[in-house]
Specification:
single chain; mainly alpha; two-stranded antiparallel ribbon; about 60% helix; elongated
Length: about 475
């Protein structure tokens, strides 16, 4: 491999001749062999850094701080990155020390070297265009990285919201399909009162829909950025009008309703918005996991469990038990939920670890948030497509469980009274006979009356009744 020699304040370093990154990125490559996951895995973060550098170049040029020729070259390089080019040059590990400095320098160097080519110079000709003096003008990692991270997070949240809406529709469709399937509701894993399978699935649709609303609320907090803060929020080394100008440029290029923080010193050290967003992601994960637990319980069996529903068979379930099929899709969503809860703990600890005017732990915060959202997004669509949409109901099994359940007396209580209901429940428990059969035998209700009470349409809402 051919190399070029670049230098920084620590000395000279060999950089691959064809690489668009430079000396500081190379140092980060050597220092951080941690997660094995590079920035190139997160194209939205790369694009968000390009948006920030593009807005900064345009703002500095409009304020007379940066030569027009340099600004145009930087802008063109950023536009190429936004079109998907050069993403493979973002090579630093997402787990890094330095509060994101390596990521910022990776962006500065790639943009600078591509801009140099566009100006007719060779990579590394930093006397013509410099990654720090020009590409990073009026900036610090401490306002670039958080602002880019927030832009990327907004886009990721929107994709997750779309995935959850997709899952909600899948549950709602099954809710309509199963409106006439009577079954027993359960509390504390004990028989409670009859309901419809449609009500059960519709409730899950509502649960998912509520989380879409909570995500929408949380993502509004992430719209506040600190561009112009430079190192600690004082705006040192930037033009007095830079904060306003660069924010306006970012709003125009991203089409997002970004707002500049009213206190840049506070914004540079405060990571509360990330904690809030992570808390909502944990809420999503916990609720999805609860739903998947329910799906596994309701499909348990097929002969020795509840067996009220059938999950679509996705793959053979055992290397030793022929014919066994496991609920692998709900199981993987459960595991995603566990990982998201763990990420929430990481984000909480990283946010708490901030000291004085900066929180240096933002790389692990960003990594954890991206991982949680990516997994939840994929898990939601996988659950919808490979599980929920293919679920079928065992209608006769559901009806059988209702008719044989002791809990049936609760539905009959308004019609025959508490004492008779308790008497029937006790006899059913002792004899093993069904409540349905005993009520008919004692003549408390006719078969027509019991069947009318147990009609699905009569079980889903309050109704008038007359006690016999």
């Amino acid at each position: 491999m051919e190399y070029r020699i670049e230098h920084d304040s620590l000395g000279e370093v060999e950089v691959p001749k064809d690489a668009y990154y430079g000396v500081q990125t190379k140092r980060a490559l050597d220092n951080f062999h941690i997660s094995g996951i590079t920035m190139s895995h997160y194209p939205r973060l790369i694009n968000s850094l390009a948006y920030v550098k593009l807005a900064a170049a345009e703002a500095n040029a409009s304020l007379g701080m940066l030569e027009e020729q340099k600004s145009r070259a930087i802008s063109r390089a950023c536009e190429e990155i936004l079109s998907g080019k050069l993403h493979d040059q973002f090579v630093v590990d997402v787990m890094q020390g330095g509060a994101g400095t390596s990521s910022n320098m990776n962006a500065n160097e790639v943009i600078c070297n591509r801009a140099l080519e566009l100006m007719g110079f060779e990579k590394g000709s930093y006397d013509q265009l410099h990654p720090l003096n020009d590409v990073n003008m009026s900036q610090s990692t401490n306002d670039v990285y958080p602002s880019a991270l927030r832009i990327a997070l907004i886009l990721e949240v929107r994709e997750l919201m779309d995935a959850l809406q997709y899952l909600k529709k899948a549950f709602a469709a099954k809710g309509k399909e199963f409106t006439d399937v009577l079954k027993m509701g359960r509390t504390q894993l004990q028989d409670a009162v009859p309901m419809t399978l449609g009500q059960e699935f519709s409730a899950w649709a509502v649960m998912v829909g509520e989380d879409v609303q909570r995500l929408d609320e949380a993502q509004h907090l992430v719209h506040e950025i600190n561009m112009g803060a430079t190192a600690i929020g004082t705006g040192l080394n930037s033009h007095p009008d830079y904060t306003r100008t660069v924010t306006e440029k970012l709003i125009k290029s991203t089409t997002l309703q970004l707002v500049s923080s009213p206190d840049l010193v506070e914004a540079t050290q405060d990571t509360g918005a990330y904690v809030q967003l992570s808390g909502v992601l944990k809420r999503v994960a916990v609720k999805l996991s609860k739903i998947c637990n329910d799906l596994r319980l309701l499909s348990s069996g097929p002969r020795c469990g509840l067996n009220e529903i059938n999950l679509p068979p996705m793959q053979p379930g055992s290397s030793i038990m022929p014919g066994k099929v496991n609920p692998v899709i709900p199981e993987v969503v459960n595991q995603v939920a566990f990982a998201v809860v763990g990420n929430d703990v990481t984000i909480s600890m990283a946010s708490e670890a901030g000291q004085l005017e900066l929180n240096v732990m933002e790389p692990v915060i960003g990594y954890s948030l991206f991982q949680s959202m990516n997994m939840l997004q994929r898990a939601s669509r996988t659950l919808a497509d490979k599980c929920v949409s293919g679920i079928t109901a065992n209608r006769e099994r559901c009806r059988e469980l209702v008719e044989n359940s002791i809990g049936l007396v609760t539905a009959l209580n308004p019609f025959i009274g508490y004492e008779k209901s308790a008497e029937i429940a006790k006899e059913a428990m002792k004899s093993g006979r069904s409540v349905y059969e005993i009520v008919l035998e004692k003549g408390y209700l006719s078969q027509e009356e019991i069947d009318d009470i147990l009609k699905p349409e009569n079980m889903v809402k309050p109704r008038y009744y007359t006690r016999s």
